[in-house]
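Reopening this one. Same input as before:
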Amino acid sequence: MFFENTLLDLVARAFILGGLALTWIVLLIRVNGLRSLSKMTNFDFVMTIALGSLLAGAAQASRWEPFGQATAAMAALFFVQWASSRLRKDSDVAETIMQNEPVFLFKDGKFCEAALDKTRVAKSDVIAKMREANCLSLDDAYAVVLETTGDVSVLHGGKAEDRVLDGVRSV
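Same output, byte for byte:
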């Protein structure tokens, strides 16, 4: 692709194509915004993983066509993410279809057994998240929420306002 010498060509492709693809991703992030690599939704998380895969494919391309296809796919991912976020913002129906609801795993001093079963989260994992949040007693925790992204939030230090828990469901 660049040199007759195989080793030199491999190294040149890795540096040149990898650098070009990474620069392309940075440009797309600048255009689309920092939200592109957030974990706000399932789609955002999947996009981050897909971008990594496409970057690897672009850096390993042995011809210009696969490199061009990978960079075009990167642009398509950013476009689909932009379009889906606009759709979610403008439509409650789209929001409901595209987004999971956060779920209580622990509330008011009690584990939510049905939610733990349904979400396949172990009590030990919830307790570990409490320790991570510096919650020193189960009585100190008001709630533990499995967020839409798969993150776990520990609310402690007093009763939470209703609007902080808006949209969190009990199972």
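So the earlier flakiness isn't reproducible anymore. For the record, The two ends are 57 Å apart (CA to CA).
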